[in-house]
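SEVERITY: medium
COMPONENT: batch folding queue
REPORTER: lab tech (J.R.)

DESCRIPTION
The queue accepted two submissions in a row. Attaching both inputs and their returned structure tokens so the on-call engineer can compare them side by side.

ATTACHMENT 1
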Amino acid sequence: MQPDEITVISVTHNSDHVLTGMLASVPAETPVILVDNASSKGAPALPAGRRITLIESRVNHGFGWACNAGAAAARTPYLLFLNPDARLTPDCLARLMAARRSYPEASAFNPRLEDHDGQLFFRRATRLRGNRGRVRGKPDRDMPVPVLSGAALFVSKAHFDAVGGFDDGIFLYAEDDDLSVRLQDQIGPLMLIHDALVVHDVGTSTEPTLEVIAFKQYHLARATVYTMHKHGRRMAFLQCLLQALRRFAKRRTYRSAEAKRSAVAYLKGVWSTRRDGGRYTPAS
């Protein structure tokens, strides 16, 4: 496989402040598809002379919907879903391509994700599986994992299409958990590739105002209820409601406007699922 056999797909929403760094890290010969989810500042400015396709949506239909739109437009056999606040290291794509040959039974892959200080970002388990397959300790080698992060998810287009892509019923968050479970159940193991490194400045794709923080927490709650129910977790609404209420029993919730706003928004998100189970219906 060559770098031009992979399409990098990235979803943007007022992400200009981080997008330049991400695009600069992608090899020039690798095609990029940007799906802009109704940025209030307009579509992002793009560098000249690059293989970049811009898909603009006037309505923010959610992260999964935008990823699916990017995948539908891709013409390469492999896809890398990459957050705009992430940056590839120089040999990352080559190592992911080598992993596809080394682990042919695997359904999809994560590179090693670190922040700019070298702190590992690693998901040990998904609540959709309980503690089943939970990873102990920090990974120091290639290894199977129970869930992948959507911040940098490498998958063949054939596998992605075979499981139906991301679930459009999820607006934001938990869509990577849901996709991971379906890939694992229908196709094969999920792998973390230790020597393929992506630097991810977590949570900086959009500027973290109080309004943005509340918006994200509200949709995190809704997505959690929806995906737990979808995958047969018992009493999903009650579990999430109790989790939301426990936030208000902690002192740190009242020590900052951000923490209090987050707790209130999460509770509102859980409570809102009484009517629709947390499912998002994209606008026509």
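ATTACHMENT 2
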Amino acid sequence: MKTLLYVMVTLFAMNCGSIQVAESSKMESPALPVSEETFTNGERIGDMMNYLASNDMKGRDSGSEGIEMAAKYIENYFKSYRLQPYFESYRDTLSNFKKPSYNIVGVVEGNDPNLKEEYILIGAHYDHIGTIGPENGDFIANGANDNASGTSTVLEMARYFGTQKTNKRTLIFALFSAEEKGLLGSKHLAKKLKEQDLNLYTMLNFEMTGVPLKDKDYFMYITGYDMSNLAEVSNKYAEENLVGFLPTAKEFNLYQRSDNYPFHEEFAVPSHTFCTFDFTNFNHYHKVGDEPELMDFEHMATLVNKTIPVIEGIANAPTQEIQLKK
């Protein structure tokens, strides 16, 4: 969310664990037990977050050694949970960034002979800003909330669908690089998929999901709330007021500031970002204080557990329920 920086600094002014690098065989999240009532738990999420946002990653700057570690972790995760590479490999090399950088893209084919030709893309960016000016001797911008949180959310959804295969429509899971450089990873992939004439139904993006909202009657919000009926459809499948409207998101036009937007531009389909950051509940955006110990892993697990039935409903509905509003 680099493009949010100046907006957020202004608003904040107004409102005034290192993990060692493991060999690839150990980079998979351990198979912790999950109850019959849930799809993930806080312990699983915590293990992922403590790795992805560790000091060893050096802030996951695009093209760095740190983000290469994260890329390998994601690849191993996809492979472990039976996602197929969408391209020849999981890596989608960016054509619009000088340093070697990769989106990591996996796919779970739909199980319906007709609906599997319709695609739902679920994404998050896994890069951050690397190292910055030191604060109390710390110079690593770990990027736990931004956006190891969204990455972990998408990975746990990928694990569920990769192993359960309950989706009639085909699901693409994409982790984007170079979001912090101007949405370059998502711009590259959106253009590439459009050139391939992909039949994209909707794009669902996850950004900064690490801390809960406060004093809201909904669990999370989507950017571009009034551009489609996604919130209404989501709440139907969640059987609760899961997705709401955050006025600040509209005020600062967050719809255009994350990886959903390139897919809106290329495909003109419903493309939204789910988020639980509301400018008041987290004070370490693009700072060294964006550390995993400040994240609420139980909240993150709850978000995954509440959202999987929504995705399942959208993926299995006989018609395309999510529609853009005129």
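NOTES FROM REPORTER
Residues 24 and 72 are 7 Å apart (CA to CA).
No errors were logged for either attachment.
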